[in-house]
Amino acid sequence: MPRSPFPAPTPEGPSSGLDAAAPGSATPVRRIAFAPAASPDPSEADALARAQAGDPHAFAHLYSLHKRRIYSLCLRMVGNIAEAEDLTQEAFLQLHRKISTFRGDSAFSTWLHRLAINVVLMQLRKKGLSLISLDEAMEPVPNEGPGRSFGAPDLALSGTIDRLALERAVADLPAGYRLIFILHDVEGYEHNEIASMLDCSIGNSKSQLHKARLRLRDALRLSSRKEAQP
């Protein structure tokens, strides 16, 4: 894979913590703060205009503003540091080629994330990994509907969930579920922004996120029961 002239971002360890209830469920899955969202930089608009005009220093500034979030997204999707670095470099190479096509119809960060997502999804398809389609997310799945689980331990009340178990559960999600979960609960994007990034409906995004949270909850309960066994 070609390399960009910019250095790879430094990997940062994730932090855990859950927030935000899943719709229709008794046990909330809290929002996961794996990495802090980048604050808007007032110099970004100026750097963007200059980068579109061919200024390499302005492009380097955009890279420094966004590299960590793009790297974090790639790492969460592929789970491999070296591969995530390559995908991050490829995403910024794509940005370098296509930056002149950005017209401001959405936030630049949203547009850049969409570009990076396409790079990641192409890589996952090359590896033959299963990608649950966004249309499929609207189809009913047996035994996956919302409901109360009486008698089951409430993960939100049982203390801190083991961070490694949480990371494993996220990594084990099908790629389609994992992508929307990361964008919404980790990166903090709203459903309308995710729908724009992925060319899907807001309803599809909400459905995919709901099913991802249900799978995470089941995986964490199973992990908790295994650890409780003597």
Major beta-sheet overview:
none
Uncertain stretches of 5 or more adjacent residues: 11-40, 132-160
Class by alpha and beta content: mainly alpha
Mean pLDDT: 74
CATH class of the domain at 44-126: Mainly Alpha
Could you name the CATH homologous superfamily of the domain at 44-126? RNA polymerase sigma factor, region 2, helix turn helix motif
Beta-strand percentage? under 5%
- Give the overall shape, derived from the CA principal axes: elongated
Q: Helical region count?
A: 8
Structural summary, described in words:
This protein has 230 residues and is mostly helical. Among the domains are: 44-126, Rna Polymerase Sigma Factor, Chain: A (Orthogonal Bundle), CATH 1.10.1740; 154-228, Winged helix-like DNA-binding domain superfamily/Winged helix DNA-binding domain (Arc Repressor Mutant, subunit A, Orthogonal Bundle). The protein is 54% helix and 0% strand. The chain contains 8 helices and no strands. It has helices at residues 44-52, 56-78, 81-98, 108-126, 163-171, 175-186, 191-198, 202-228. Helix 3 (81-98) packs across helix 4 (108-126). The radius of gyration is 19 Å and the shape is elongated. The protein starts with 43 loop residues before the first helix and ends with a helix. The model is unreliable at 11-40 and 132-160 (pLDDT under 50).
